[in-house]
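Dig into my protein:

:::
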Amino acid sequence: MRNTPDGLRAWLHRHPLIPDAVLAGMLAAAAVPCAYAPSLAGFDAPAGLREPGALSLALTLAGCLSTALRRSRPFAMLFLVVLAEVTLASLDQSGSLLWVAALVLVYTVAAHRGLALSLCALALSLTCRALLAVTVTGPADRTAHLFVAVLTMTLWIAGRGARLRRAYLAELRERAARTERARESDTRAARAEERSRIARELHDVVAHHVSVMTVQASAARRVLATNPDGAREALSAIEEMGRTAMAEMRNIVGVLRTDAAPAERSPQPGVQEIPTLVDQMREAGLRTQLWIEAEGGPLPPGVDLAAYRLVQEALTNSLRHAGPRARAWVTVRQGPGELAVQVEDDGRGAEPPAPATDRTGHGLVGIRERVALYGGILRIGPRPEGGFEVNARFPLKDV
């Protein structure tokens, strides 16, 4: 135990029987002389008061020592004290300091027990005071009992106030704990959402660039012997695509850095970068046409990025599955209150197009999550005239 007031207070709080036993011992030690000199206890000696005997001393000591158990059984100890006072009064013996023990126990019941039991304790103590007032004849003694009754009411009110204050402080601590738990839960949810977002971004970047690099490498291998210049251009495109992929991945995972000075990150791509994306797909061998019709102000950053990733994933799937001589069309229309993004391909080529179920992998699942996140509508599936289609509509409430 630390030798400080706070440490001593905490130790006594953990061992309440020790201070209660000390209080009971002091009260019992003071009650014995007061039994022989009632004026020391605050009362004048009434006429006919007998000299205390062994029974009266035993009852007095038992009542005073009962306060040692005031934390565990306060109402039972109060009943014992009241019974001792009434018994001593019936024997014309002095109650000594039993009224002090009764005050202590009334306060304890009010401060540590419920309202119903504390009201019973108050009623029991006041009834005892009324009975004792009836047994005395002098006005001074009646005044003294009235004074004790007022003290009883005062201490009962103080005990109830202390109990309500403790309950209020406990509620504040519980509310603070709930707030802290909710904050930690929100933090975990935000981290999980951020991890999910980073996973989607990494998938889109890696799937797109690796698919383009694979197509370019396959083309370079086929023309390596007959067209070295063409193979060299394809290899240069692969090198440039690899650098671009690495740069984008560094930008994405840069948010995971924990050092004090993270690297600066370039803005996330959006609709304005779609022409560059279409040029990359053309270089990879996918004949792509682009139409952009923009009306209104700038797009919200989240919708802007989602539209770019949608076009990127859809063109990557067309490059991988639509066939070597397929064509693709990209249409982006920004109208009042809505952004429409459509990517189509004809799926015609020397090789038969892959089934539609093979073209809805994890990337398009991520696209569904992006579109749903911003309250959009998404359609993914085959076109009636052949080929494949990805069609999304984003509401633009803030534009």
Observations:
- Strands lie at 287-294, 327-335, 338-345, 377-382, 388-395.
- Residues 258-264, 349-360 have pLDDT under 50 and may be disordered.
- The chain has two domains: 5-178, 270-399.
- The CA atoms of residues 326 and 348 lie 5 Å apart.
